[in-house]
Amino acid sequence: MGLHRAAGVGLALLLTSCSLTRPVELWTNDALEVRAVEDRGALDEAQSRYAELLKSPPNDDKRRWVEFRQAEILRAQARTDEAEERYKRLWSEPFIDEWGAKAMLHDARMQEQLGRPHDALSLRLQTILRYPNEVSAENALRDIYDQFEPTPRTLNDLLENLAPQLSDSYLAGNVLYLQAQNLDQNLGDIDAAAAIYRRIYVEFPEDALADDALWEMTNIYRRVQAWPAAVQNLKVIANNTESSWFIGSYDSQWVDDAIFDLGVIHLLFLSDYDNAVAWFERFATTYDDSLRAPEALYYAAEARRLQHQDDRHFAILRRIVKSYPESKWARRASDRLGTWGRQ
Predict the structure, then answer these.
(1) What is the pLDDT of residues 42-71, one digit of tens each?
(2) pLDDT score of 242
(3) Residues 11-27: pLDDT tens digits?
(4) What average pLDDT does range 148-177 have in this prediction?
(5) Tell me: the pLDDT tens digits for 229-277?
(6) What is the dihedral of CA 165, 169, 171, 177, to 10 degrees?
(7) CB 131 within 8 A of CB 104
(8) CB within 8 A of 211, min separation 6: which ones?
(9) Cβ atoms 133, 139 nearer than 8 A
(10) 60-74, 200-214, 296-310, 315-329: range with lowest mean pLDDT
(11) Residue 3: is its pLDDT beyond 80?
(12) HEC string of the chain?
């Protein structure tokens, strides 16, 4: 008898589970259908059907998604007062999520379209500070950069004020990176820019921005021909290679550029031909299927020519002709070889 009761309880639990999950699936399917209606431009119909969905949302996340879509429809219909009320309702709730962040950012963009730049800026700053780990905060930061780039001093002040308030967030490095870009590209203060890029590299070593910051710092050194500093940074990037058996390689995106550039700098600016050849050979070996591989070999051959090492010079040229016969570098190598060099 006990076993029968246990089986009955198990069946009841299974049925209860099905009755709980099935409505969620139905609700989600209905939500996707309404979103398709909205995408077709039937906004009034979509708004009405979203209202029906709000009668039984499975959780707060789904509810807030529906309310955000309703606000977007109101904005598209130029019912700005109602849209503003909907947006504010979302970001006034105590949730820290993408819907609150999106609502605040989209409210900011609507305020700008309505000719209220101060309200727009205030909402963008609030988006950044309240939702620093959401994508909308990054978009708000980019909006601010684009808006104030024509006035770089004001932009620098804004970013400088934001940075310490975001020290433990996803956006911390982004704010510093944009500040460095502004200092370099718009204010011409390359020393301050290089210092901030260095700070990003030191303070956020695991962030993808660390590689970008080191690369931008190196570009500054190259522009002012500070070759020892540029070479030091490029070597760090070139040797920043890691791999694992289950992921494969996850090198810095700048590794190939760094290796090639080290060859160029040693060849053209340092007259260090042995090192130039070593870097160009490393590039051609590591990235043998790259369009720049025959170019790297041609420059390696040029380094040997400048060293008056004719045998090595011609050997590399013959290698180009053999390995990359269809490239323009093969044609140049063939012309350089002439009749005697091809033997």
Answers:
(1) 999 999 999 999 999 999 999 999 999 999
(2) 52
(3) 444 444 444 444 788 89
(4) 94
(5) 999 999 999 997 653 333 333 456 899 999 999 999 999 999 999 999 9
(6) 70
(7) yes
(8) 237, 240, 252, 253, 254
(9) no
(10) 200-214
(11) no
(12) CHHHHHHHHHHHHHHHHHHHHHHHHHHHHHHHHHHHHHHCCCHHHHHHHHHHHCCCCCCHHHHHHHHHHHHHHHHHCCCHHHHHHHHHHHHHCCCCCHHHHHHHHHHHHHHHHCCCHHHHHHHHHHHHHHCCCCHHHHHHHHHHHHHHCCCHHHHHHHHHHHHHHHCCCCCHHHHHHHHHHHHHHHCCCHHHHHHHHHHHHHHCCCCHHHHHHHHHHHHHHHHCCCHHHHHHHHHHHHCCCCEECCCEECCCCCHHHHHHHHHHHHHHCCCCHHHHHHHHHHHHHHCCCCCCHHHHHHHHHHHHHHCCCHHHHHHHHHHHHHHCCCCHHHHHHHHHHHHHHCC
Distance of CA 214 to the CA centre of its chain: 15
For residue 194, give the amino acid letter: A
